[in-house]
Known about the structure:
Elements: E1 5-11, H1 25-37, E2 46-52, H2 60-71, E3 77-83, E4 86-89, E5 93-97, E6 103-105, H3 106-115, E7 120-126, E8 150-154, E9 164-165, E10 168-169, H4 170-182, E11 189-191, H5 192-202, E12 211-215, E13 221-224, H6 231-235, H7 237-240, E14 248-249, H8 263-277, E15 281-284, H9 293-298, E16 302-305, H10 307-317
Parallel strand pairs: 1-2, 1-3, 3-7, 7-8
Antiparallel strand pairs: 4-5, 5-6, 8-12, 9-10, 11-13, 14-16, 15-16
Amino acid sequence: MQVSGGALLVGIDRYQGAWPALSGCVRDVDHLDDLLSRHEDGSPNFSTTTMVSSDGLVTADLVLDRITRLLDADISRAMVHFSGHGTVDGDDGGCLVGQDGSTLPLTHVMRRFRDSRVPQKVLTLDCCFAGSVALDRMLRDEVSVIPDGVVVLAASRADEPALEGVEGGVFTSYLRSGLAGGAKDVVGTVTAAGLYAYLDEAFGVMEQRPVLKANLRRLVPLRSCHPQVPLPVLRRLPQHFPDPDEVFALDPSHEPTMDDHDPARVAVFKDLQKCASARLVVPVDLPPEEEHMYFAAIRSTGCRLTRLGQRYWRLAEDGRL
Length: 321
């Protein structure tokens, strides 16, 4: 599989001057590098470049230069991640802080994203005040406008700190879990939108709140994981349900533990059980304590597609899986 995307991953632990040291930003970048460079099946994903404080001085100018080089590349997807200190400057608004205390205004970063011809671009920020990117008050040069094809995932709102945990940035910890499969859809794709949904549920109402800002025509795929339901099973949904609203009748011959089971029906039942595990199919006409596919078979009731299941039924029917 050809690599069609590039990712720049920046992590700064050791700061000069008055900025306190951080403990997990470099580790965050190392983990993200492993996740983003390969899909779960081992095939190539992003071509990654890391900039970490343990390898040399990471200044604001150097970060901006690397961002510019990435966004000038002939690729279809670009991702930039920053783990480190963030601050707010009265003139420039939110800024990323370089290792030497130099600052990179997020307005400058957004200009690079705005001017890039890369079709799909993602910016993830694990730093304090990360949500200050593209604020309405930063109207000059249209840097408050999210450009077409850009997604921003920020660790916190414009007036909030971003916290570190024992294993690194709290935001990046959940980001890694989502990329590892926690945010995948039924076919195993992790998108930026799916990541935000995962992040939104991960943080409590009294904790830092992740921010999503986007201008998209289509979802940005970031990583492929093993599907919840194998694609051949999903493609057979129209065979099992000629009409997406109908109930599939079950009986004891579908259940492999029954003496009079039918091998062909058992094979179909296994398909339906896999779909039920992904909430695509649910049993019908059972009491709450027996709402399980096993009981639907031995009680001779049936199962139906959920609304999500009907969505994948249509994709299979249209040959899009």
